[in-house]
Amino acid sequence: MTELKTQQSDASVNSFLESIEHEKRKTDTVTVCDLIARLTGWKAKMWGKSIIGFGAYEYHYESGRSGRWMMVGVSPRKTSLTIYIMPGFSGFDDLMGKLGKYKTGKSCLYVNKLEDVDESVLEELVVKSIDVMKDRYEWSAE
Predict the structure, then answer these.
(1) 93-108 pLDDT tens trace
(2) Do 73 and 84 meet the contact criterion of CB atoms below 8 Å apart?
(3) Cα(38)–Cα(29) distance, rounded to whole angstroms?
(4) Over the Cα atoms of the chain, what is R_g?
(5) This prediction's pTM
(6) Contact 4, 47 (CB under 8 A)
């Protein structure tokens, strides 16, 4: 069984934030981290070299594969700010319709700049996605 390359670590979130060269992406990343921390009360942790995650859940698949992953996270990628909404976006159509300008992947919300989205809608999306994850999985704030 292969282990996930991206693991939670004790690396410094602040050092990572300071290393972000794109000033707007850095500011947006800090804002989203502050938003998630305020909403959850959870401490930010580094996952791999470039993802800041909050909370964690344990998953177990019928195939026997299992692991641990963040409940919600953010990463300042080159082309966009990526916000990890782990249950994906189905079931959140009402919020997605009000969110603003974005693109999505399976569990990734890609935002060019934070001003492109309604922050209050983003807050609601984060809270509701965490609620879904808490219902589905064993989880912890660490």
Answers:
(1) 999 999 999 999 999 9
(2) yes
(3) 14
(4) 15
(5) 0.92
(6) no
Q: How many CB atoms lie within 10 A of CB 72?
A: 25
Cα separation, 31 vs 35, whole angstroms: 6
- Length of the chain measured in residues: 142
CA 58, 60, 61, 65 dihedral sign is positive
Tokens standing for 5?
A: 């390359």
Q: Calculate the CA dihedral of residues 95, 96, 100, 104 and round it to 10 degrees.
A: 150
What would the pLDDT profile of 9-27 be if each residue is shown by its tens digit? Answer: 999 999 999 999 999 999 9
Query: CA 53, CA 72: separation in Å to the nearest integer?
Result: 6
Task: Give the residue from 138, 123, 136 showing the smallest Cα distance to 35.
Answer: 123
Distances (CA, A) of 21 to 78, 85, 97, 108, 109: 10, 25, 32, 22, 21
Residue 68 · residue 28 · CB < 8 Å: no
- Rounded Cα distance between 65 and 57, Å, is 14
Phi, psi (degrees; rounded to nearest 5) at 56: -155, 155
